[in-house]
Amino acid sequence: MIESAPKVVIVGAGIIGTTLAHxxxxxxxxxxxxxxxxVAKGATSGSFxxxxxxxxxRNADSLGEEGARHYFNLHRLSHLRWRYLxxxxxxxxxxxxxxxxxxxxxxxxxxxxxxxLDRRIRWGSxxxxxxxxxxxxxxxxFEPGDESFIFYTPDEGMMSPVQLTLRMLEAAIARGAxxxxxxxxxxxxxxxxxxxxxxxxxxxxxDILIFAGGIANPDLVEGTELKAPxxxxxxxxxxxxxxxxxxxxxxxxxxxxxxxxxxxRVVIAKHFSGSPVGDPNTPDPExxxxxxxxxxxxxxxxxxxxxxxxxxxxPADGLPVVSSLASLPGVLSITTNAGISLAAxxxxxxxxxxxxxxxxxxxxxxxxxxxxPSIGKQ
Length: 378
Description:
Structural class: alpha+beta
Helix content: 25-40%
CATH class of the largest domain: Alpha Beta
Order of helices and strands: EHEEHEEHEHEEHEEEEEHEEEEEHEEEEH
Mean pLDDT: 90
Number of domains: 2
CATH superfamily of the largest domain: FAD/NAD(P)-binding domain
Number of helices: 8
Largest sheet: 8 strands, mixed
């Protein structure tokens, strides 16, 4: 272990960066979080925010059975850690209210869902198939109609991502972390004692430097031989004004996905799981509300508050990219499209690896060497 309290600089105040800040500060590290804007202003703010057990992952269609199962288990581990943090910190806006996935009968989507359900069951998810009547009994606000292939996963959930990121940052600051907003990272250099990081506010020393900048990571690590390859992808989410509590579960229907967050706001999207990589265009929000009201009648008179269209953080092969170099000990970049589900788990594993100076085996499938085996740890 590192004997003295290390100095840690984290670039990026999204859900990954703030969770890392909390975990490092909890281990006694002296943490500073830099962000060129404000907390949760990047991809976190435009997230659908489903905490998922899925076995088919966006832009990772070539992932084999073993790789998909490993990634599935990483999600499951992270869900347990979110539950721990929810208890340890308090006030995290997470609701473990289950998820329905449904498709029209005899459609390609129904066949895909059947295959998804089979994998989930074999790999240990408590998912199970339900009838439309059973679905309404579990979630009275849900009217699946002709979407007769339905399965339910009781231990999935959702979060209010911006509020959760703010709460994680507050918890990190309570443990001694420092937050420096409007403070753009500019570069770093290796020194005899560690690293010197330069940002808009000046220079600071660090023993550990982590890039958690989401879509900015490729630019942040440019010139360092660290890897953060991304595929261009955008995602559109329609945010509705706060409503009385209409439904609890995550609803993933054939034509619309919907979540009602802890603050009463409902977010809806055309599709926010699996493939394709991006949305072809921004949806007509009023039309999407009408479509959503077919399966969630309580949304009939809902008011659109805003539409967000954000760049998704989609690594080149769909999987998280954990990038480090033997020549730069203590420097790491983490890039993932599944920060909502994985931030808690990845943060714990990365904190352990960097503070205890060990190689955490669970991170091995996601290391950047897969893009260029000649670069990485020796």
